[in-house]
Amino acid sequence: MNKFILLFSQSYTNKLKAKSFLITTLIMLAGIACFFMWPTISSWFSSDDKPMTVAVSDQTNAQAATYFHSSKQIKFTPTTRSVHQEEQRIVKGKTDALLVLSLDQKGALQAELKTKNPLQLTDQQMLEEQTRAANQLFTIQQLNLSAEQAQKIMNQKIELHQKVLTKNAENGKTSGQKSTATLVSYAVAFIIYLFVLSYLSIISSEIAAEKDSRIMEIIISSTSPVTHLLSRVFGTLALAMTQFIVLIGGALLMARAFQDGKYWDMVSTLLSELTLGYTVFAILFFFLACLLYTLVGAVLGSLVNKVQDVGQAVMPVTMLLMVGFFIAISGMSNPDTMLIKIFSYVPFTASMIMPMRIGATDMALWQAFVSLVFLVLTIIGLFLFSLRFYRGSVLTYSNGSIIKKIKQAILLSK
Amino acid sequence: MTLSAEHLTKRFQNFLAVDHLSFKVEEGEIFGLIGQNGAGKTTTFRMILSLLAPTSGKINWRDHSIRGLERDQIGYLPEERGLYPKMPVEDQLMFFGQLRSWPKKVLKKEISEWLERFDLIEKRKVLTETLSKGNQQKVQLIASLIHKPRLLILDEPFSGLDPVNAGLLKDAVVSLKKEGTVIIFSSHRMDHVEELCDHICLLKKGKSLFSGAILDLKKQYGKINLTIRGPYDKTELAALPGVQSVTKEKEMYRLRLHHEHDARPIFQTLAKNGFIERFSLDYLSLEELFTRKVAGKGE
Ligand SMILES: Nc1ncnc2c1ncn2[C@@H]1O[C@H](COP(=O)(O)OP(=O)(O)OP(=O)(O)O)[C@@H](O)[C@H]1O
Ligand SMILES: [Mg+2]
């Protein structure tokens, strides 16, 4: 036990202190910071910081110009000058654009925009949005509704509440909950993908290096193969969790600090829409996925002869991971396909796909539980199997396929 | 006896790496395992370390299976460098000491003492990979014996060491031996083996050609190395009865005799010519014995 703690903390602290770990963590934090500060950053680079000035020539006799509201980006000013005069001003650069409002024969609002140069896409979109809103307001106004009635029409939103009539079936989730869960599950799948990808090669390189330099012979002969295997697996897992906590913690802090907590509110509403069951399963799946792949990485690391061979050995595993990730992405648009159902039970991909099914479909939770049990059994099975040849794999230096090496290692472990 | 192997055999698939090997090592004794490349030395060590299980036969420690010997009581210097390249020397030794359950405080003192002894004290904060090969070997050696093991296994400990450092290593090994440690090592350098070992085992392709005291091995052939200095002629010496071969080395003649008892008549013949500057009769050196044994039919 003491030796386990020694080996564990050695594995953990060595990797924690490694420059590569510090650098990747810092880069990731910087990436998150960029994401949160994007509005600020993009405003630094945006071509003009002055608002676009738009003169509004109202020829409707219905005060349609009052429906256009100035914002940071666009400043509307009603004008009484003639269209021709304004056009001259635009050419001279005194105003950026002229918006001419008029009514057609049926009494519908018509808008015409005159500019010197073609508009930037964002400005164009913003103007279109404004015009559409103004048109709506104008139409409502023409119907002589009260302000309250008008407000009601404008802010109407409808949600379809589902009620399943079969007994035992769970009540359907609202589409809001489903889309939140889809989004969060996508994030979970992405994080699993990213983490497993990097930690898989971290642990296999660590063990391959120890094997290559024969330190493993010393360690295994002074403790036991199990102690070595477990200390490396949990050392790596602890490192992954450390990084996870740092990144998530950093992200939350930044969400609070930047943009007046706008993102913080978004995150907290997002989280409040998640059910407890979903959260527990998502965390379990994340943790177990890391455990499974770390174990696989450890075994592969012990089988290769040189650190350089690690990349090649973990290749099939990263492929598997990619398959899982792409299936998870396909679930963003439709989480109910057969493909998703099948792969949500495959232990190597379940963690990336099952959370999405739990959150975004009306699946019964026992299915998630079954998938979780498969995953746990796979981990236990793999662990017990690897113990059969871990001692021997230290002494295999032959070339050949992984299967051949495992066979040889089993013989040597007897 | 403390460590013993009885009919130790290791078969890899259909390759016999160690074949019915038997030997005994007493407490406070240095035992040398010698043999050509691929003779099975490392394989034997790995079986002693329980890294490999013997196909048949057994290894005992004080009349019980070696597996009963506490892991912390064993020290092991692997054949190839087994250190963390990116770790400072001091941390490295601390790690290996702790791996054998020694407390940090005691280790700190031991480490400085050993580093001092091996002239590495200025290098203690240096990353191991930046050390020269010989210095790494010294660090490796300290790592294998820092915990004062009862059984010390050294696989090629002298590789890469210059004569001064080889001397330091020998001193360290001898002082451990005096404290009662059982030391078993392999080497290709027969001079070191001859100097250090009490008993040896000569391996050829997994088979033991000889196992026992070096002197006993020498006695098998007797004193048949004769060195003479004086005003003689090579052909004249070669013609003497009982002389197998003559080689001239500087002003010395080295004669190989058929038998030890051929020496006396030769002395008498030469003495007739008067004063003999040098006449010395010796056993074969271990090196010569080794090549003889290994090249021979293996008896
Ligand atoms: N894991 C293994 N699988 C198959 N054969 C092996 C294995 N380990 C060693 N051998 C074979 O056993 C024989 C003895 O090897 P060993 O390493 O014990 O030799 P050695 O005496 O230490 O040689 P050297 O002086 O070169 O270190 C060699 O022929 C080697 O190829
Ligand atoms: Mg060897």
UniProtKB/TrEMBL annotation, chain A:
Its main location: membrane. One of its GO terms (molecular function) is ABC-type transporter activity. InterPro entries: ABC-2_transporter_component (IPR051449), ABC2_TM (IPR013525). Keywords: Cell membrane, Membrane, Transmembrane, Transmembrane helix. GO terms for cellular component: plasma membrane. It holds the Pfam family ABC2_membrane_3. PROSITE patterns: PROKAR_LIPOPROTEIN. The chain crosses the membrane at residues 21-41, 183-208, 229-255, 275-301, 313-332, 338-356, 368-390. It is a multi-pass membrane protein. It is found in: Cell membrane. Residues 19-387 form the ABC-2 type transporter transmembrane domain. This is ABC-2 type transporter transmembrane domain-containing protein. The lineage of its organism: Bacteria, Bacillati, Bacillota, Bacilli, Bacillales.
TrEMBL record, chain B:
InterPro entries: AAA+_ATPase, ABC_transporter-like_ATP-bd, ABC_transporter-like_CS, ABC_transporter_ATP-binding, DrrA1/2-like_C, P-loop_NTPase. Pfam families: ABC_tran (PF00005), DrrA1-3_C (PF13732). The keyword Oxidoreductase does not apply. One of its GO terms (molecular function) is ATP hydrolysis activity. Keywords: ATP-binding, Nucleotide-binding, Transport. Residues 3-230 form the ABC transporter domain. This is Sodium ABC transporter ATP-binding protein. It comes from Sporolactobacillus inulinus CASD. The lineage of its organism: Bacteria, Bacillati, Bacillota, Bacilli, Bacillales.
